[in-house]
Amino acid sequence: MKFQIVDAFSDKLFGGNPAGVVLIDNGQEFPLDVTMQKTAAELRYSETAFVKKMNENEFTIRYFTPASEVELCGHATIGSFGALLETGVVRDGSSYILHTLAGTLQVEIKDGLIWMDMALPQVVNTLSRSEQRQELANVMGIHEDDLYLEPQIVSTGLPDILMGVRSLAVLNNIQPDFPALSKLSEQYGVTGVHAFSLGTDKVTANCRNFAPLYAIDEEAATGTSNGALTFYLYQQGFIKEEQENLFIQGESMGRPSKIMSRLQTVNEIVKIQVGGVYKRLAQGEIYI
Question: Active-site residues (predicted)?
C-alpha cells in the first residue's frame, strides 16, 4: 500500500500538523485493527489515516493515534484529501462523501483549499462551578483569574474542553501537568483541552491543544477542536454566520498552522466546516 506524510493546514513544509496517510489499494479491505494501530504507533504522528475508496465520489477513513482509534480527525482528513489530490484520485472543484466513525460528512475542494464538514455541534457540559474552574486552571498551570469566559465541553466529532484565557501571553505560558490532564480528560470523557485567546484584526483566535490521554502532549493543528470553538464563539456572539474565521495554532511548537472555518444555519440546523491547505513531505510504500 502507498503512504504519504502530509503537513496539513500549512502551505509550507514543516509547518502545520503532519499526518500519516495510508491509501488502501483498490479491491483491498482495511488491515486488521491491531495492524493499523501498530502502524500508527510506528509512524509516530499524532494521527494516521487509513483511506479506502468506495467509488468515484465516496471514501471511508479510519483514524488512529499512537494509542487508540478515534472517530474523526480534522488535520488527517485534510492530509488524506491532499494525498488523494496528489495521486489524482480526487479533483479540484469537486465534492466527495466521506464515511467516518463520527458519521457521514462532505468534503469540498476548491482552488487547492480543502473544506470538510464537522459532525453536528453538541454542548456536552459546562464547567460552571468555581471548584471545576479552579481544578482546570491548576492542571493547566495558570490561575483561575486567567480564565476568560466559561469553560465548556463541546464536540463537532470529538469532545474537548474549550478554555478561553485573557491574553496571548497567558496562552503562551500554559504549562500543563500532563498526568493530571490525562486524568481530568478521562474524568470528563474528553479528548483534551483546547485553549484559546481571542485574536485581533483578521485572526479569530490563537489556540493551543493538549491531549496527553491520547499520547499527544500538544498538537499543532486540530480541525475538530477549532470546529467546536467555532460553535462556542458563535454562541458567545464573537462569530457571525457565513463569515470565514481564521485560527492560528502551533506557533508554540514552531509549526505555525492556519485553520479556517465557516458556520451557517440550514433549516435551523447549524452546519460547520473546517478548511485548510496542505503540503506533501514524503511518499512511499508500506508493507502491511
Answer: 47
Catalytic residue among 42, 47, 150, 242: 47
Mind listing the pLDDT tens digit for each residue in 33-85? 999 999 999 999 989 999 999 999 999 999 999 889 999 999 999 999 999 99
- For 242, counting Cβ atoms within 10 Å of its Cβ (0-12 exposed, 13-18 middle, 19+ buried), the class is exposed
Question: CB neighbours of 145 closer than 8 A, spacing ≥ 6?
Answer: none
> Angle 130-140/178-188 helices, nearest 10 degrees?
140
Burial class of residue 183 in the structure, from the number of CB atoms within 10 Å of its CB (0-12 exposed, 13-18 middle, 19+ buried): middle
**Can you give the pLDDT at residue 215?**
86
Q: Which of 4, 10, 14, 157 is nearest to 80 (CA)?
A: 4
Domains of the chain: 2-118+276-285 (3.10.310.10), 122-272 (3.10.310.10)
Q: With contact defined as beta carbons under 8 Å apart, do 30 and 49 qualify? A: no
**How many Å apart are CA 227 and CA 9, to the nearest integer?**
14
Phi, psi angle pair for 34, to nearest 5° = -65, -35
Residue 47: active-site member: yes
* 288 pLDDT more than 90: no
Closest CA to 101 of 68, 61, 65, 154: 61
Closest by Cα among 276, 193, 264, 184 to 230: 264
What is the pLDDT confidence band of residue 133, given thresholds at 50, 70 and 90? very high
Q: What percent of the chain shows pLDDT beyond 70? A: 100
